[in-house]
Design goal:
Strand content: 5-15%
CATH superfamily of the largest domain: Glycogen Phosphorylase B
Largest sheet: 7 strands, parallel
Radius of gyration: 21 Å
CATH class of the largest domain: Alpha Beta
Number of domains: 2
Structural class: alpha/beta
Number of strands: 13
Helix content: 25-40%
Shape: globular
CATH architecture of the largest domain: 3-Layer(aba) Sandwich
Number of helices: 12
Order of helices and strands: EHEEHHEEHEHEEHEHEHEHEHEHH
Strand order of the largest sheet: 3-2-1-4-5-6-7
Distance between the termini: 43 Å
CATH topology of the largest domain: Rossmann fold
Length: 397
């Protein structure tokens, strides 16, 4: 398991890493939070809810109302639609529903003076970086990843017709994405993987701020004999290989998460297999119960930016059988708090068989303290106040 926290000083950090003189108290700052459009409740929405709570914000500004009809499952933070402030409103509403294509332009047109002229604006997501703030507003971005289809996954769909037809649009949006980068005064990255991408694609330093995990809400409730997959049924989550590994096998697998983008035949295969149980999107309470009772968690996300599921698994005292890519591949110490595999159906089966035979050597719960909610709040408050103090005097020396 890597100890690399990637705690770079950041673009607006305060010098040598010590406490910044005259840093304000967090309660004395007017702070606003913005998050790109929401088409499903997931890890990014969990993060921005916790971020807003930590900064004392009751609302998060977003494009359009959240597409899921159910209220925010992660807390009481409200999402406020900024398109209500844009004209012509019917056109802007239509653009917001169209997805990422129009989001750079929509965020660019939001006048933040209509929302209180904050001292600090913290944006979450890639397109929110397009905002144009007053010159006395510090703009910090929490980066989940530079847009992957513009950069590290650009070549992955080159053989499909849709991928070929989308190339001109992706090239334009990549230029748009690069153009807006200077509007960000400083970056938070959700893992060392994202810090590396920010340096590679934007040549920007960042400070790693791991998403918070409410460690105390998880428990080890024993072993009911089933394996667990948490997350949307997405291609990028490697769900087809997980289904192939367990379908027709004598190991039971419970899948919990939204419908996702996998083909209908994957869902049909899940329904046909006796040992596969798809629960759909589950509440936090049910998720914690499944984690408490499972034998181990199977995780197969492709080059995952952060991936909260392996941490949740360990917090529940369970091993995580994780794909050896991205941050989960750094977090899981093979044979200690989990088992690594290559992402294929055969590799997943081999990892399960190895786990059944050898188990793991360490207490999984010992690996998660650095991801606690308390650590997140402390580091966020310190970073925001010190960066604002440095920003306030920048260029005035």
């Amino acid at each position: 398991m890597s100890d690399d926290t990637g705690d770079g000083a950041g673009d607006v950090a305060a010098g040598d890493g010590g406490e910044t003189p005259n840093a304000p108290d967090i309660d004395d700052l007017d702070i606003a939070v913005a998050h790109w459009g929401i088409d499903a409740w997931g890890g990014a929405e969990y993060l921005v809810t916790r971020l807003a709570e930590a900064l004392g914000c009751e609302a998060v500004h977003t494009l359009g109302e959240p597409a899921p009809d159910d209220p925010n499952p992660y807390g009481d933070v409200r999402f406020v639609d900024v398109t209500d402030s844009l004209a012509p409103r019917p056109l802007r509403k239509l653009q917001a529903r169209a997805g990422r294509v129009f989001e750079y332009a929509l965020w660019e047109d939001v006048d933040w003076r209509e929302f209180g002229d904050p001292d600090v604006l913290v944006t979450s997501g890639a397109t929110t970086r397009a905002v144009i703030t007053p010159d006395d507003t510090l703009h910090l971005n929490y980066c989940h990843s530079p847009p992957r289809w513009f950069y590290d996954l650009y070549h992955d769909r080159k053989d499909s017709l849709v991928g070929q037809l989308a190339r001109p649009l992706l090239r334009y949006l990549r230029m748009r994405d690069a153009t807006i980068d200077p509007r960000v005064d400083g970056y938070f990255a959700n893992s060392p993987i994202i810090a590396r991408r920010l340096q590679k694609y934007y040549e920007r330093d960042s400070e790693v701020l791991y998403p918070p995990v409410d460690i105390d809400s998880y428990r080890d409730g024993g072993d009911d004999g089933f394996y667990l997959h948490l997350g949307r049924l997405d291609e990028e989550k490697g769900v087809p290989a997980v289904v192939e590994a367990f379908a027709g096998w004598d190991r039971d697998l419970v899948l919990a998460g939204g419908r996702g983008d996998v083909d209908d035949d994957v869902l049909a295969r899940i329904r046909r297999a006796d040992g596969l149980d798809y629960r759909g999107f589950v509440s936090e309470a049910e998720k914690c119960d499944l984690l408490a009772r499972c034998r181990a968690v199977v995780f197969n996300g492709r080059n995952e930016d952060f991936g909260i599921v392996p941490i949740e698994a360990n917090a529940s005292g369970k091993a995580c059988l994780a794909r050896d890519e991205g941050f989960p591949g750094m977090f899981v110490d093979d044979g200690e708090n989990g088992v690594l595999h290559d992402g294929s159906a055969e590799g997943i089966r081999a990892a399960v068989e190895r786990f059944e035979r050898d188990g793991i050597d360490a207490d999984p719960q010992s690996a998660v303290e650095r991801f606690s909610s308390g650590a997140f709040v402390d580091r966020l408050e310190t970073a925001v106040t010190e960066r604002y103090a440095a920003f306030r005097t920048r260029g005035l020396d």
